[in-house]
């Protein structure tokens, strides 16, 4: 079906869904797709995408470090970690791709008991204070609403100026 879409459409085709490893991505690309979006396959196992040296717990630790650097909301982080360590959404093809490296040593029950970053980091041995708010390059990466609000205020000011000009022109 992918090949037919690629042939029939004049726009680049990006395929999404159920690529469980490098072979699936390569097959979709061979059929002519310009790109592939990978979700569950990458959450379940990075081994199929070239990260063969990392365990699931290594990937979770890396993810936690990035969440701390970017000041990601804890609930979102916990949800993604739980998705990473469970296999409830796997198809049979996905289950066949699992290796021991794909299984976390931390249980879902342990993660569900955790109520904050401190507890989550403790489970995986991530030093919170070392990671929080700064990248390795020393660049501040803490989320701040002001980043978005600044542009919003500028737009509001422009709209207000236009209203004033319009009102003045009508007088």
From TrEMBL:
One of its GO terms (molecular function) is tRNA dihydrouridine synthase activity. One of its GO terms (cellular component) is cytoplasm. Pfam families: Dus. InterPro entries: Aldolase_TIM, DUS-like_FMN-bd, tRNA-DUS-like. Residues 3-50 form the DUS-like FMN-binding domain. This is DUS-like FMN-binding domain-containing protein. The lineage of its organism: Eukaryota, Sar, Stramenopiles, Ochrophyta, Bolidophyceae.
């Amino acid at each position: 079906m992918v090949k037919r879409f690629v042939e029939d459409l004049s726009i680049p085709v990006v395929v999404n869904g159920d690529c469980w490893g490098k072979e699936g991505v390569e097959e979709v690309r061979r059929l002519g797709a310009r790109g592939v979006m990978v979700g569950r396959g990458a959450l379940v196992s990075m081994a199929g995408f070239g990260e063969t040296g990392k365990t699931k717990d290594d990937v979770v630790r890396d993810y936690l470090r990035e969440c701390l650097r970017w000041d990601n909301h804890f609930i979102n982080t916990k949800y993604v970690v739980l998705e990473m360590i469970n296999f409830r959404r796997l198809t049979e093809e996905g289950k066949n791709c699992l290796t021991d490296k794909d299984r976390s040593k931390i249980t879902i029950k342990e993660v569900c008991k955790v109520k904050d970053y401190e507890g989550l980091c403790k489970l995986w041995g991530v030093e919170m204070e070392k990671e929080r708010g700064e990248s390795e390059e020393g660049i501040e990466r803490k989320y701040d609403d002001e980043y978005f609000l600044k542009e919003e205020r500028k737009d509001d000011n422009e709209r207000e100026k236009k209203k004033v000009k319009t009102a003045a022109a009508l007088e």
